[in-house]
Amino acid sequence: MTNSNIFTQGIVSTCLFASFTLLTTQVANAAQSFSLSSNLKQGALIVGKTDPDNIVKLNDKVLTVSKNGDFAFGFGRDEVKPHTISVTNKSGVIEKQTLTPQKREYNIQRINGIKQSIMKPNPVAVSRSQKDNAQIAKARTTLSDRTAFAHGFIAPIDGKITGVYGSQRVFNGEKKRPHFGLDYAGKTGDPVKAPADGEILLFEPDMFYSGGTMIIDHGHGVTSTFLHLSASKVKTGDVVKQGQVIASVGSSGRATGPHLDWRINWFGVRLDPAYVLELPK
Predict the structure, then answer these.
(1) pLDDT cut 90: percent of the chain above it
(2) Which of 31, 40, 162, 237 has its CA 20 to 30 A from that of 168?
(3) To which H or E segment does residue 171 belong?
(4) Is the separation of the CB atoms in 270 and 133 below 8 Å?
C-alpha cells in the first residue's frame, strides 16, 4: 500500500470517527433535552424539566414551561391510553417519547340491599351541588406562572390516613363517584397547613357536600383543594408559604365526622395527593 493510500484511508477513518463522535454527542444531548419524574402511574402528577426555550407538548396540548424549565401534567384515575410528550428546541429538532400510564388496583366496596329511597338523588342537593361544582371547576382553570409544584409537597395535617384516592363504592350494582382525595383523621379546629407555596383562589364556608372548601394555586394548573373545613385563616388572593396554617379541620358539609379531605388537580384532571408527597423537595 502506498503512502498516499495510507494517508487517504487515515483521513476517511478520522472523518468517520469524527462523524460517529458527533452523532453520539447529538444523541446524548437529545436524550438529555428533558427529564420527567419517575412515577408514571394512574393518578400521578408528572413534573418535568427542560431548557426554558423549548416548546413542550402533551399530545396536541402546549404545556407552560417556566423560566427555569419546569413543566407539569398528570394522568387521571382511569387513564390507560398512551400519551406523547414532544419537546422542540430552538433549532426545530423534535424529540418525542410515548408514555402509557401504569394501571392500578383500587379499593372497591360492593354493597347490596340499599333502599331505593336512599339511592334516589335529592333534587335540591343536585341543584346546589351543581352550582358549587361550577365554582370549583372555574377556579381549577387557573393557569399561572407559579412553580411551587416543582419544589415538593408536605402533608397538610399530622393525622392518620383514613381514606385513599381511587376507592369506590358500588351500591346495588350502581357505581358511585370514586373518592379523589386523601382523608386525614383530625379533630375540629386542628390546624391545616399549606402543602406547598401558592395563592388562595377560593374559600367558600358552606358548600353543600364539601362544606368549608378552599383551593390553592401551585402553578401551571396544579391546585390543592381542602374540604369540610371549619374555618379559614386566610382569604382569597392571599399568597401563602409551604407549612403556613391556612385553615382548621371540621365536619362541615356532608361529613360523618371531623376530618380533612385533601385533593390535587392538574386543571380538571384529578390526581392522587399521596403521589405528590413522593416528589423530590
Answers:
(1) 75
(2) 40
(3) strand 168-171
(4) no
- For domain 3-99, is the CATH number 3.30.230? no
Do 73 and 46 form a contact (C-beta atoms < 8 A)? yes
Q: Tell me, what amino acid is at 169?
A: R
Which residues make Cβ contacts (< 8 Å) with residue 103, sequence separation at least 6?
41, 42, 80
pLDDT tens, position by position, 231-277: 999 999 999 999 999 999 999 998 889 999 999 999 999 999 999 99
Three-state secondary-structure class, residue 141: coil
Query: Which residues have CB under 8 Å from 72's CB, separation 6+?
Result: 45, 46, 47, 48, 63, 149, 150, 219, 220, 221, 222, 266
pLDDT in tens, 87-140: 999 999 999 999 999 999 998 877 565 555 445 667 878 888 899 999 999 999
Amino acid at 251: S
Question: 3-class SS at 24?
Answer: helix
Core vs surface per residue 96-131: b (16+ CB within 10 A) or e: eeeeebeeeebeeeeeeeeeeeeeeeeeeeeeebee
Phi-psi region of 187 (alpha: psi -120 to 50; beta: other; left: phi over 0): beta
- CB-facing half-sphere around the CA of 60: CA atoms within 13 A: 0
Q: CATH assignment of 108-276, given 2.120.10.30, 1.20.1260.10, 3.40.50.2300, 2.70.70.10? A: 2.70.70.10
Query: Grid coordinates in use for 230?
Result: 371549619
| Per-residue cell: 49 | 424539566
Smallest CA-to-CA distance from 66 within 79, 77, 52 is with 52
The x, y and z cell numbers of residue 101, run together, are: 400510564
Q: Are 164 and 202 in contact (CB under 8 A)?
A: no
CA 189 to chain centre: 28
The answer to whether the CB of 137 falls within 8 A of the CB of 58 is no
Instruction: Give the start-to-end residue ranges of the domains of the chain.
Output: 3-99, 108-276
